[in-house]
Amino acid sequence: MLTSVRSLTAASVFALSAAFAAPAMAQDDDIGVSVSANVALVSEYRFRGVDLSGGDIAIQGGVDVGLPAGFYVGTWASSIDETTVGYGHTELDIYGGWAGEFGNVSTDVGVIMYIYPNAGAGDFDYVEFYGSVGVGLGPADLTAGIAYAPDQDSLGSTDNLYLYLDAGVGIPDTPVSISGHIGYTDGFLTFTTDGEALDWSLGAEVAVPGTPLALGIAYVGVEGDGIVDPGGVFTDDAVVATLSASF
């Protein structure tokens, strides 16, 4: 069980997928290597429905390197609330994997390491394996994914399973897209007495024409039986605004 002292910490699936979709800022066609970057300012850092920035603005960004044959490596970081979360003031994620497309079906598998470089004494860093399958249906796409963190000291010598379903659609002839998400957690990384939680979000994004900028807004929530979160510090529903750029 997770308490308000030991908060859920991980890079969001949304942030990773946005990073992978960013256009290349530099590319060497001879060796098949591309580099992309992303930055964002968010009104709250919410991951799997849980607030990691104490209700404050968070600064985020990452760099991804596409390698030959569909392989990639990358890193992503976010400011977090040092007092509320208890992991220091920075989350740093390092990941690598393989992504491929087969017609209108896309796949992605990899591993990610969550690092908290200025956390206090104790075990905080952990590893998670992930995979997803997506299907494109005209202007819409549907993605199902799984993330599994095996037994580790930083997870209380237990494991954590996360399942999710994402849907998105671009409104034809406009720069607007709409997205929905639902996820289920079973394991250590919850705020519930039974180790199970359900999170969800519904949002919209507008790409600013002629720029790498995008504006987004989402309504985010998480719920479960016996939530252990006095005052709703981490788990109250929230409206989250995002200003992002991809290069």
Would you mind describing this structure in some detail?
- The protein has 247 residues and is mainly β.
- The chain has a single domain (13-246), classed as Porin (Beta Barrel).
- It is 5% helix and 57% strand.
- It is built from 2 helices and 15 strands.
- The chain has helices at residues 13-21, 82-85; strands at residues 26-28, 33-42, 46-47, 50-51, 58-66, 71-79, 90-102, 105-115, 126-137, 140-152, 158-170, 176-187, 196-207, 213-223, 238-246.
- The strands form 2 sheets. A 12-stranded antiparallel barrel has the order 2-5-6-7-8-9-10-11-12-13-14-15.
- The longest helix has 9 residues, at 13-21.
- The radius of gyration is 18 Å and the shape is globular.
- The protein starts with 12 loop residues before the first helix and ends with a strand.
- Residues 1-25 have low confidence and may be disordered.
- This is TorF family putative porin.
- Residues 1-26 form the signal peptide.
- It holds the Pfam family Gcw_chp.
- Keywords: Signal.
